[in-house]
Amino acid sequence: MKKVQNVLLSGVGGQGIILASKVLSVGLIEAGYDVKMSEVHGMAQRGGSVTTQVRFGEKVYSPIIGLGQADILVAFEKMEGGKWLEYLNPNGKMVINDFKIPSAPILAGDVLYPEGIIAEIKTKIDDVIVVDGPGLAEEVGNPKTMNIAIMGSLIKALGLDEIVDWEKVIGKVVKEKFIDVNVKAFNVGMAQVK
Amino acid sequence: MKYLMTGNEAVARGVYEAGVTYASAFPGTPSTEILENVVLYKKDITAEWAANEKVALENAIGASVAGARSLAAMKHVGVNVAADPLFTYTYTGVNGGLVLVSADDPGTHSSQNEQDNRYYAKFAKMACIEPSDSQEAKDFIKEAYEISEKFDLPVLFRMTTRTCHSKSLVEFGERDEVGVKEYIKEVNKFIAAPANAKTMHPKVEARTIELEKFSNETKLNRFEWNDKKIGIITSGVAYQYSKEVFGDDVSYLKLGFTYPLPMEKIKKFADEVETLYVVEELEPFIQEHLQIAGIKCIGKEVIPRVGELNPDIIAQAILGEERETVHISDDKKVKRPPTLCAGCPHRGLFFELAKRKDVMVTGDIGCYTLGYTEPLNTIDTVICMGASISMGHGAAKAFERKGIDKKVVTVIGDSTFFHTGINSLITTAFNKSNTVNIILDNRTTGMTGHQENPGTGYTLQGDISEAINIPDLVRAVGIKHVITVNPLELDEVNKALNVAFEFDGPSVIITRWPCALKKFTDLDKEEFDLTRKVYKVDPDECKGCKICIKTGCPALAFDVKSDKAVIDPLQCVGCDVCAQACPFDAIKKVGE
After folding, report:
1. Would A108 be classed as within a structural domain?
2. Do B8 and B43 fall within a single domain?
3. CATH of the domain at B482
4. SS3 letters across B568-592
5. Given a cut of 90, is residue B503 above it in pLDDT?
6. Which of B237, B281, B336 to mutate to test the interface with A (most CBs of A within 10 A)?
7. Is residue A107 part of a domain?
8. Would residue B340 count as lying in a domain?
9. How far is B176 from chain A (nearest CA, A)?
10. Total domains in the fold of chain B
11. What's the confidence (pLDDT) of residue B516?
12. Of A12, B499, B519, B567, which has the fewest beta carbons less than 10 angstroms from its beta carbon?
């Protein structure tokens, strides 16, 4: 793969996005890609928006991308997906978790959580994969595995499912007692994408 | 074998490989993880948190004078605090090599300004090195120690948020066991008394000329010759962005050693290329030097001076490439500001303080800065570390002279109090103002991710240490009215505020409860009841008054359809603050 692929992962602090990005990065390195990854720390994490970027290919220079440059946008939370849409190449793909995390003004009852986000995105982007994250995590029996389930969908959507043994990669990244449940979540997530 | 590492992890590895034996720092985003990773090599390196950046640098200077290769690491604004020792250690020179890592924050991801610390190198007359990725961060640190010892000066190692927090592949090397140099008492070198300083300054100027020669020779500054229609001079992560945009279609002068600049190499490069661009983040530091030398170039005329760069910004600026984008409509976006966490011990204090009218509240740097946001809205000012107490004192004096009856309250965290707040409080006690000074003691350094500090009872290396007794400390500086409260008990907080507001003279209230996200220590478990509880709203009792919502807890939501508050049981940690705030006793502990 000569052309560098840009993945932008977006969501909310506490959703496990950094860990999920690590699974992706470790797998890509094992498959022999050059990889760069960027993440946010500090105050931004206190319940605010969190994004990470993973870029991979034969040779990667920049650790970050600009507007309209993501080949695939992954939204772990749907309003965040809408917010970061401007970073997606209009011909790119999107994986969006049909899951709401209300932000402070919504919690305070000042505004309602916006409806119709996914429907509007579908009018603008042709290739949208909607994942029922909470449903998948329930199937697995642990709500905290939602992040890895979505990674399963992403990796399948990118056509990377065969590049390495992802179960082994997960084994390296997550704590030992959570390996089995995360492997299960990963496989359930992969099965969502045809 | 290559490892995927952040720049901060790579710096730590480089420090290990360079044979460093002493490292000191004060936590600050984006620099914090440097020392957290240096401590992984504690068998070979003593790694410590200092009370502030000035102390950290002085610790490192002491180790350097004693003969050790030493490190000080801090965020950009920390260098302001450490500037005093820095500007003279560049005069005296070193014994063991000394590197100061400055982690700048273009884009103010987690900072109060976006100053460009390369100017410190020029101002303090020291060498400046800028890596562009993690491999360079590791390799250049080793070079930095060689340069420090060869030219007898401290080296400024300038990182940015992206070089600190982006990950790229790193190949390791072996540790150079350089050992610790012999310490020889040299009063003419290490006593910067006026008579000595007079003789040091000309040596510093001569050294800068030698350093510029080195800058022209070192492989840290290198040409990448391709087509010569466009030439780009660049440094730091801006090099990676430029390569992303132009690949091998243009020529580069890639600078890793950015002060003193390699003016001969720059002139040669400028002569060879048709159009010369300078691509650098933040200030036109490199560009100004070219302009002084009369070299025609394009820099900040097209490249933004404000904020963080990325490849797209550079492509737009130089190639005029406008990328196609799609947007979601505005009605589908709601802001997601950071908030104090569920169970945060600062909430109770701010909730009560917010009820007081006609007060000025000076704030400080930490998670509790968020006390200024909706719905708490309590803090009026935040400038820098430690400023709450001292600004509050100045404001109180100004109000007093003008005959304005306005109470001034100052709010500061435990770690920030130890950083520089203590100096401010000494001044307040000395000059006496009727300020109410509140120290939010959450038993850790919260915002940067739970580092030990002089109040926690543990060190960075995991050893048990003396924990500062804050009440004793503030009494010792001359504060007569001191009270410690549990901030989760609203009545207690309110009473303490009433008494302090009436007290004639400066007072201190300490709110003591551990951060809700902290990994509790044995000491915490001994002192506090930390069993997790969960609360729920009884919908029959809830009148929909929204008073609980004013606590700003992310575990609480107001359901517009039912006109009632609801608690998310997954987020609630049972701090009880909302239950006390509720005037109808509608919030109850689950299971009671």
Report:
1. no
2. yes
3. 3.40.50.970
4. CCCCCCCCCHHHHHCCCCCEEECCC
5. yes
6. B336
7. no
8. no
9. 28
10. 4
11. 94
12. B519
Q: Which residues pair with B480 in a beta bridge?
A: none
Contact A85 B326 (CB under 8 A): yes
CB A31 within 8 A of CB A83: no
**What is the average pLDDT value for chain B, to the nearest integer?**
97
| Any domain includes B331 | no
Question: Is the per-residue pLDDT at B114 higher than 70?
Answer: yes
Residues of A in contact with B167 (CB under 8 A): 25, 35-39, 63
Going by C-alpha positions, the residue among A163, A159, A153 that lies closest to residue A192 is: A153
From the list B364, B356, B358, the residue with the least C-alpha distance to B388 is B364
Same domain, B463 and B505: yes
Rounded Cα–Cα distance for residues B552 and B556 (Å) = 8
Which residue in chain B has the smallest CA separation from A83?
B333
In a domain, A140, yes or no: yes
Measured between alpha carbons, how far is A117 from B327 in angstroms, rounded to an integer?
A: 11
Question: Is residue B69 domain-resident?
Answer: yes
pLDDT, tens digit (0-9, with 9 covering 90-100), for A80-135: 999 999 999 999 999 999 999 999 999 999 999 999 999 999 999 999 999 999 99
Cβ contact B166–A64 (<8 Å):
yes
Q: How far apart are the first and last CA of chain A?
A: 22
- Asked if residue B327 belongs to a domain, the reply is no
Domain co-membership, B128 together with B55: yes
At B331-363, the pLDDT tens digits run 999 999 888 999 999 999 999 999 999 999 999
Range of the domain at A74: 5-98+113-190
What is the domain range of residue B231? 221-319
Express each pLDDT in B432-459 by its tens digit.
Answer: 999 999 999 999 999 999 999 999 999 9
Find all residues with CB under 8 Å of B486, minimum gap 6, and list them: B492, B511, B512, B513
Nearest-Å Rg of the Cα atoms of chain B is 27
Query: Both B128 and B231 in a single domain?
Result: no
Q: Do A47 and B110 touch (CB under 8 A)?
A: no
Phi, psi of B496 (to 5 degrees): -60, -40
| A104 within some domain | no
Mutate: best of B166, B546, B571, partner A, most A CBs <10 A = B166
A-to-B residue pairs, Cβ atoms closer than 8 angstroms: 190
For residues B22 and B157, state if they share a domain: yes
State residue B570's pLDDT score.
87
Supply the CATH number for residue B546's domain. 3.30.70.20
Of A25, A49, A64, the CB nearest to B310: A64
Domain count for chain A, please give it.
1
CATH code for the domain of A43: 3.40.920.10
B-proximal residues of A, 166-185, CB under 8 Å: none
